Amino acid sequence: MTVKNLTRGLCSAAAALTLSFASATIALAETIKVTDIAGRVVEVEKNPSKVVIGEGRMIYSIALLDQENPFARVVGWKDDMINYDPDAYRKYLAAYPEIKNLPSFGSPYADEWNLEAVISLGTEVVFMNLGNLLKAQESDIIEKLEEAGVATVFVDFRQDPTANSIPSIQLMGRIFDKRDQADAFSDFYQQQTKLIYSRVSQIPVEDRPIVFIENAAGYNPSKCCTTYGAANLGRLVDLAGGRNWGSMKFPGFKTKVSLEALFADDPAVIIGTGANWSEANPDTIAVLFGYEADDATVQDRLAGLAAREGWPELSAVKNGRFHSVYHQFYNSPYHFVAMQAFAKWAHPELFADVDPEATMKELHEKFLPIEYSGVFWGTLNSGM
Questions:
Q1: Who is most buried in 53, 104, 122, 146, counting CB within 10 A?
Q2: CA torsion 151→157→159→164, rounded to 10°?
Q3: Do the strands 210-214 and 151-155 form a parallel or antiparallel pair, or are they unpaired?
Q4: Helices in the chain by DSSP H: which ranges?
């Protein structure tokens, strides 16, 4: 072998060695260990290209990170956003028509879930809700996915949203390799919530009005009511300067309420939740909040809820403190917008300068790939 050939061979070997080392480094970097919101240590592919979400409304969160296309890595989901927030679905469908063909696998915790189809797609990560941890454990779905090489990661925007939303966004940011986007939203979230906390801390307890949250007000016209305890929207009421009626009555997340007990206590402020459920339940009398809602219809629906038997005699209705808010805030990292509305309703003068509408618009302009439109909260006009 000539010196020239020997040199060429050594260079080729060195290049191959360098390439192998680089490939090995890249391979190692692609797998990371994270601690999910359930406290589980999970080994997961970094920046996965194929993700299944156990609830369609997780798109609210993914959109904050994958701002160019929230569906770019989603290969399957549940159809809850299609059924219960169709305005949002149509908004995203207009921007990303390909999602019309996105497979729906139903609930990961039920027999309807097609595990084989999930695996066959080459899924790398399945995101699940913390509130369904027990169901997932009982169904053995976590173990079955792990055996197939699919990681499961639990996030939470519902059980304890003010404690877990930012850790969940940060967790997803690490996995998606979108930490800058996660940090930017986290900063915005802190700014918007601290605006409330700094003032509420100065309000004496006796000056905080009792607030009743009616969950899914009017979804079923013949049934009333359920409300939240010191969790989820009930927790948001307490943090926004009110005293949540449910927090004072029972422990836990949510419960049924007798109208007699509600009427006897006559809370100062009433807030119902609503969304566009007209397609899932055509008979609903709920306020159809969402990206396609309009003010006139919101007022008609609010008036209908306030006119139910016995309700016109309540102080909140008489005093112009009968409100409603977009139901999906209960399962979204955008819940700080609802909290700002709650604060204004509880203490109008103290929060006169706070503008949840401007906050919602800024959220969309800075972080979301869809434009803001529609109506997401409202107050019954006096005289109706």
A1: 53
A2: 80
A3: unpaired
A4: 3-29, 59-65, 80-84, 86-95, 115-120, 133-139, 141-147, 161-176, 179-200, 232-239, 245-249, 259-265, 295-306, 315-318, 335-346, 356-367
Do the domains at 28-174 and 204-379 have one common CATH topology? yes
In angstroms, the CA 122 to CA 151 distance is 12
pLDDT at 378: 98
The whole-angstrom separation of Cα 179 and Cα 358 is 26
| Class of domain 28-174 as given by CATH | alpha beta
Q: Looking at residue 252, what is its pLDDT?
A: 81
Q: How far apart are CA 236 and CA 230, in angstroms?
A: 9
Buried-exposed string 296-327: b where 16+ CB fall within 10 A, e elsewhere: eebbebbeebbeeeebeebebbeeebbbbbbb
- pLDDT digit string, tens, across residues 77-114: 999 999 999 999 999 999 999 999 999 988 888 777 88
Q: How many CB atoms lie within 10 A of CB 183?
A: 13
Q: Which of 248, 299, 237 is nearest to 271 (CA)?
A: 237
How large is the angle between the packed helices 161-176 and 335-346, nearest 10 degrees?
160
Q: Which residues contact 143 (CB under 8 A, 6 or more apart)?
A: none
Residue type (1 letter), 318: K
Cβ 94 vs Cβ 373: under 8 Å: no
Give me the residue spans of the domains in the chain.
Answer: 28-174, 204-379
d(CA 28, CA 19): 14
Of 229, 308, 212, 310, the C-alpha closest to 268 is 212
- What 3-state DSSP class applies to 1? coil
Its CATH architecture, for the domain 204-379, is: 3-Layer(aba) Sandwich (3.40)
- CB 90 within 8 Å of CB 292: yes
Q: Residue 124 CB: number of other CB atoms within 10 A?
A: 21
- With a CB cutoff of 8 Å and minimum separation 6, the contacts of 332 are 57, 60, 61, 157
User: What is the strand order of the sheet 210-214 is part of?
Assistant: 243-244, 210-214, 269-274, 322-326, 377-379
* ω into 225 cis (within 30 of 0): yes
Per-residue pLDDT tens digits for 114-133 = 889 999 999 999 999 998 89
- Identify the band that residue 33 occupies on the pLDDT scale cut at 50, 70 and 90: very high
